[in-house]
Design brief:
With 205 residues, the protein is of the alpha/beta class. The protein has one domain (5-204): 3-Layer(aba) Sandwich (Rossmann fold), CATH 3.40.50. The chain is 46% helix and 18% strand. The chain contains nine helices and seven strands, in the order βαβαααββααβαβαβα. The chain has helices at 16-30, 46-50, 53-61, 70-75, 92-98, 102-106, 128-142, 155-159, 178-204; strands at 5-10, 34-39, 78-86, 89-90, 114-121, 145-146, 166-168. Strands 1, 2, 3, 4, 5, 6 and 7 form a seven-stranded mixed sheet that branches. A hairpin with a 2-residue loop joins strand 3 (78-86) and strand 4. Helix 1 packs across helix 9 (178-204). The longest helix has 27 residues, at 178-204. The two termini are 23 Å apart.
């Protein structure tokens, strides 16, 4: 049984964020954490999904993946969130899930958990940094310890985003490449290490 528990919670329409979420989950697991990979519930109407081939295809491919619940957040020591950017903010599907966490927040169940986030946008400068910092606003309210990747590894000088791993999908046409996947993997490993150290420190305090 692992000494650390990680929940990777994400929303993805055409698969870019999903690929990064998988990489994060695998890296956290390789770093010795027990991991739950969870998508959030889709809110878009069926006709909207069907109108976009990539969206419809990805929805079918991931239809059996478990949906996130509040129990996943309470269970975890480390929370890794990913969402595509929508007008510089997290996609509504993930935001709606975050908006259901009031009971956990009110009971102090999210205090001192480690949190980190990542994103994908259709275009360069399409809101990657603002989406990540917007997600972090929620973590401040929860009382989490936010762990960014910074420039704490050589991959970050290639990826170039110290706030969190990010990807430019060219309107869903380009999947995350090796640099993006290595960046989110590093971010996940770093977060696992800090979450483990924090958990040990708090237990001995």
């Amino acid at each position: 049984m692992s000494d650390l528990k990680t929940a990777v919670v994400y929303y993805s329409a055409t698969g870019s964020v999903h690929a990064m979420a998988q990489a994060a989950a695998e890296a956290a697991e390789d770093a010795g954490s027990e991991v739950r990979l969870r998508k959030v519930r889709e809110l878009a109407p069926e006709e909207a999904i069907a109108s976009n081939q990539g969206w419809a295809s990805h929805a079918k491919q991931t239809q059996d993946l478990p949906e996130a619940t509040l129990d996943d957040l309470e269970w975890a020591d480390l929370l890794i969130f990913g969402a595509p950017t929508r007008f510089g903010m997290p996609a509504a599907q993930l935001k709606q899930f975050l908006d259901t966490t009031g009971p956990l927040w009110g009971a102090g169940k999210l205090v001192n958990k480690v949190a980190t986030s990542f994103t994908s946008a259709a275009t360069a400068h399409g809101g990657q940094e603002t989406t990540i910092t917007a997600l972090n606003n929620t973590f401040y309210h929860w009382g989490c310890v936010i762990v960014p990747p910074g420039y704490a590894d050589p991959i970050q000088f290639q990826a170039g985003n110290p706030y969190g791993a990010s990807h430019v999908s060219n309107n869903g046409q380009v999947p995350p490449g090796q640099v993006e996947l290595d960046a989110i993997s590093f971010q996940a490993r770093r977060a696992v290490g800090i979450a483990r150290a924090l958990k040990v420190g708090l237990a001995s305090a």
